[in-house]
Design a protein that fits this description.
Length: 172
């Protein structure tokens, strides 16, 4: 699945069954600007696929859009377990709308090493999204989309970055 801009939000400058998905968001912004962009992304190492959105805010509404997008990428008849950190927009409360084919696994506080998508963000920062100056908000959005789409086009890279021995696909 290719990263796309949400049709419900104008992304200003934006800056994871039986299958185990990992999710998080990554922030990108331009110098001397109040515009922000967030790259929401989730990957399934077992299938080498992912789902991503570039959004102007990181909040419960944005997370709901992300969950809907992930839901469209879960294999037919499968149930995805999504690992999440403690970000405010990852908390269920009464406002997070979790699709029926997704379950949430909240990680303990201060344990980013347990969330394989953190390695995805590190990879994107090291290879595509750091040490660059973007002239416009649109350039930042484009860079986020290009970086994510490049990753998603390489299923073996997703598998090598995000596979963990303790998180395996289960069949019944």
């Amino acid at each position: 699945m290719r990263t796309r801009r949400s049709s419900r939000h104008h992304p200003f400058w934006p800056g994871n069954r039986r299958n185990s998905w990992r999710s998080a968001s990554n922030l990108v912004n331009k110098p001397d600007s109040s515009d922000w962009a967030y790259l929401f992304g989730a990957v399934c190492p077992a299938r080498g696929v992912g789902a991503g959105l570039v959004l102007p805010h990181a909040n419960v509404h944005a997370m709901n859009l992300h969950l809907q997008e992930i839901s469209t990428q879960v294999a037919e008849g499968a149930f995805a377990v999504l690992t999440l950190d403690g970000a405010g927009w990852h908390q269920t409360g009464d406002r997070l709308e979790v699709p029926e084919n997704i379950g949430l696994l909240h990680l303990p506080p201060y344990s980013p090493e347990l969330n394989p998508v953190e390695n995805v963000w590190e990879f994107l920062r090291q290879n595509d999204l750091s040490n660059r100056v973007y002239a416009t908000s649109e350039a930042i959005i484009d860079a986020c989309c290009v970086a994510w789409n490049k990753l998603i086009a390489a299923p073996e890279r997703i598998r090598s970055i995000a596979t963990r021995d303790w998180a395996k696909t289960v069949t019944s």
